[in-house]
C-alpha cells in the first residue's frame, strides 16, 4: 500500500537567537485529513535551526506512518531552497541538520519541497508557537497525539459548490498542433512552431477561455514558440493581457528521443523505454525525468498562486507539465500520467484556495475544436 502525505513544518525563535520551538503537521494528500502532529521546544537557538527541526520532526512523523511519497511545504524559503539543492548551506550550524533531514528524505520513494506563504502554513506555525508557550510555562505541556490511520475511504464534507471569491481560477491550455503533433513525435525542447491548423486551434481555445473567465489577470506561457504564439492569441481574446514567459513551464527534455516516434524509440531503446514507462524517476537518454519536471512545475505553480491570489490565470504549456499539475491536483498516482490524453489546444480548469483546497472542474475540453 502506498501513502501520499503532505508535511507542513515551521519553527520560530523569540529573540533569534532566543527561546525557540517547532511544529509539524502530517496530512493525507488526498483528503487533507491530519494524521499526525509534532511540536517541541528547540531550546535557545535561531529561527533557521527551529525551522530545520520542524522539518526533521515532520519527516520522522511521515516515516512513522510508513508514507511512501511526501510533499513538504514550508514558509521558510531558506530551508526549501537548501533542501532542494538550489542554495548552498553556508551556515556551519545548519549543515548537520540538513544532513539529518537528507538521510530521512532518502527513506521515502519520493519527496518534494515547496515554498508556501505563511498564511497557508498556519497549522504548523500554531504548533511552533504552542511549543514556545509551553517551554515558557505560559500553557501546560500537552502530550503528543498518536498517529491517525488513514481511512480506506473518505466521503466529501459537503456537496455544496465552493465559493469562488478567494479562489485562484486557472485554465491550463495545451498549445496548438505542430508538425510533430500530427506525426506523433516526441516534442520536448525543440522549438517547433504551430501549423496553420495549430493557429486555428489556438484561436478556438482563446474563444473558449474568454467564455469561461471575464477578467483574466495573467496569461503565462512556456518559453517555446508554440506555446508563446498560443498564449498571444488567447491574450488578445481575453482583453489584451500581456503574455508572461515562465521558463519552468517548458516541456520535458526527451533527450535522444526528441523528434522520434514512439515506435522508433521502442525499437532503438526498448529497455530504456520500459524503464521510463515504469518509473517517473527514470529519464530518457540525455533527457530529464518526470520527477524533475514535477519539481520545477510545482515551483511555478507556487509562484502563480502567490502572485495572483483570487484571480483568473491562463497557463499555456505542454503535455507533461499539464499532466503533472492535474496529477497533483487530483492526488492521483503516477499511472495517471500514461492514462490521460491531452489534445492540442485542449483546455482544463481548476480552482485553488488559499488553504490549499483544490477543485478540478474540467479536463481536456475539446468541444471548441469541433
Number of strand elements:
11
Largest sheet: 6 strands, mixed
Could you say what the CATH architecture of the largest domain is?
3-Layer(aba) Sandwich
Rg on CA atoms, Å: 22 Å
Number of domains: 2
Helix content: 25-40%
Give the helix tally. Answer: 12
CATH-derived topology of the largest domain = Rossmann fold
Domain RNase H type-1: 1-141
GO cellular component, one term: cytoplasm
Region (Disordered): 134-160
Active site: 175 (tele-phosphohistidine intermediate), 251 (proton donor/acceptor), 251 (proton donor/acceptor)
SSE layout:
Elements: E1 4-13, E2 18-28, E3 34-45, H1 47-64, E4 69-74, H2 77-83, H3 95-105, E5 110-115, H4 122-135, E6 168-174, H5 179-183, H6 196-212, E7 218-221, H7 225-237, E8 243-245, H8 262-268, H9 270-278, H10 290-307, E9 312-317, H11 319-329, H12 336-339, E10 347-352, E11 358-365
Helix pairs in contact: 1-3, 6-7, 8-9, 10-11
Can you put this structure into words, describing what you see?
The structure is a single chain. By secondary structure, the protein is an alpha/beta fold. It has two domains: 4-135, Ribonuclease H-like superfamily/Ribonuclease H (Nucleotidyltransferase, domain 5, 2-Layer Sandwich), CATH 3.30.420; 168-369, 3-Layer(aba) Sandwich (Rossmann fold), CATH 3.40.50. 36% of the residues lie in helices and 21% in strands. The protein has twelve helices and eleven strands. It has helices at residues 47-64, 77-83, 95-105, 122-135, 179-183, 196-212, 225-237, 262-268, 270-278, 290-307, 319-329, 336-339; strands spanning 4-13, 18-28, 34-45, 69-74, 110-115, 168-174, 218-221, 243-245, 312-317, 347-352, 358-365. A six-stranded mixed beta sheet has the order 8-7-9-6-10-11, with helices on both faces. The longest helix has 18 residues, at 47-64. Mean pLDDT is 89; it is low at 151-157. GO terms for molecular function: nucleic acid binding; phosphatase activity; RNA-DNA hybrid ribonuclease activity. This is Putative phosphoglycerate mutase. Residues 138-157 have a biased composition (Low complexity). Residues 134-160 are annotated as: Disordered.
